[in-house]
Structures are given as C-alpha cells and as structure tokens.
Amino acid sequence: MAQENLAVVVHSPGDLRLVLLQMHSVGICGSDVHYWQYGRIGDFVVKKPMVVGHEAAGRVVKVGSAVKHLNVGDRVAIEPGVPREMDEFFKNGRYNLSPTIFFCATPPDDGNLCRYYKHSANFCYKLPDNVTFEEGALIEPLSVGIHACRRAGVTLGSVVLICGAGAIGLVSLLVAKAMGASQVIVTDLSPERLKMAKQLGADFQLTVKKGDSSEQLAKSVHDILGAQPHVTIECTGVESSIQTAIYATRSGGVVVLVGLGSPMTTIPLINAAVREVDIRGVFRYCNTWPMAIAMLSSGKVNVKPLVTHRFPLEQALEAFETTRQGVGIKVMLKCDQNDLNP
Question: What residues does the Enoyl reductase (ER) domain cover (predicted)?
C-alpha cells in the first residue's frame, strides 16, 4: 500500500482546463481503509493499483492556459467528484448522481494522496488566507454534513438526532448547529466520541449500550429531549441504528441515511409509512464547497478539533493503521516535505 501512496501523478499538458497541484494535507477516510483492507466497497472493486485519498488541499504549481480563476501559488481545496459529461444530473444540479462521474479514489479513478496531482480547475476552490490547508482538506467530510442537512431540511429551530459520533456525525452536528438547529442530541457507543460531540456543541449525548433495543433507545431520545426530533441523521449504517432513527423521529419528520452498511437492511417501514416519516438517501454531495468555505472563513464552523493525528506521507502505513483501529477522529497525512504545518 505504501508504494501506491507515494505515487506522483504527472501533469497532462494536453488539457488546458487542468491545474497541477503540490499536495499538502490529505485526510484518511474510512473508505480508503476499506479499499486497503478488502479491495472493494460494494460494486466498486480495485482491479489494479489505485492511489487512495479524496479529502485534500494543496498549492497550485501549474495552470492550463484556459484557467482564469487560479494562479500559481494559490492554496486550494479539491472537490473530488468531477462530472465527465453534461447528462441530466449535471443539468439539474445533482451531478453527484451521474453514473459516469470521476471520483478520486473510487475504482478505477486514482485519488490524491501523493506529492503532486492534477485536477479539473473548475473543481479546485481557492482558500481564504484565514483557512488552513487542513481545514481545506476537511471541507470534503464537512460537505457530507452540509448535503445531509440540506436533504433533511434542517433550519432555524430544528430539533435533530444524530446517530453516530464519528467524523461524519460530528461534521453533521457542526453544520446542523450552524444552520440554526435549536437542539442536537448525538448517540454513540463510545463515551470518548460523545465527549468530543459535547465539546463541538451537542446539547445532549446518549451512550448506546450493546443490547439496547431500537425502541428503547428511541424512547430515551424522547425522554431526554422532551419531544421527538424533527430530523434524524443516521451516520453509522448499522441496522439497529437505522431502526432507532425511524422509531425516534416525530411523525411528519425526516430520516436521512448517510452511513453505508449492509446492502439489505430490515427496517420498520410500515411504522415510517403510517407516520409519514420521509426516508432520504445521501450520496456524497454537490454544490457544497462555496458554503463550506464561507462557514470556515467566517468562523461559524470550527473543524480544527477533528484532526487528532498527523503523519508525514512516508508514514502512511502507520497512519492507515491508526485509522483502522478507530483511534481518534481524523488522521491527516502531510504530503509536502518542506511544510508540515496545518
């Protein structure tokens, strides 16, 4: 694995809309670890060596002649999904659903955990001076939270339940609060992760114990809040947690499924149907980078506490092992040998 991680992606001079980036900070996602361990996620199968990494920020070192909004030296955050064609999904603004989209570190497309990487200039976003490279890399998971909260309709006064206090659960918490949620309760098996959720602004935390039934947990959520949440954002993909999400959400509310688990899952569908609880999927994100940058630059959202471990690129194997073991929240790899700062 380490050999692929040290790959250098060379610039293609034939495409005038590309930029060449010197990578700086790349976060490790659970999907990166899953590809490393198992070689596949669902129908996406690694059939040849693949560079991983899709949570990234770097510095522009070369621009194509048709690129007008970026200059050499600009610090940028990279949106890893780039549409390959102007299909119906592109036209209606939901390009994340395009079946032919290029996406970093999704077979057969290489990612950006390397020294140098080329990318579509239109999907590189200049970072304000007060936003660090690491914050730029964290825009990718933050975007999942933005897209989830948009899909859920989180707004001023919303009461929100978030199942799971991993990185995605925590960014969903940050975004929900920034979008005006009045109360957010977060559930998890780990007291340490719930402690982090509290530090990041969760109003209530509920420790899940193995053996708790979904209906019991839903009742506990109601008892803590004094009412059922308008919105539940499910970030674990675990069957029992999805069941809890449905039981806990108030009638007429919304359950958003962010976590990916078993392809076939048993859920109380009739319970949701007769109470008009909408169940909505989330697949990555679209049109989120400008909002995320504004959130970070204005200080409305602080993602810095999420980075708990840092490693130079040469120690990629140790970094991946740290993530695999579930230690900390977000592990960041530093790709620029001459600049190891955040």
Answer: 2-333
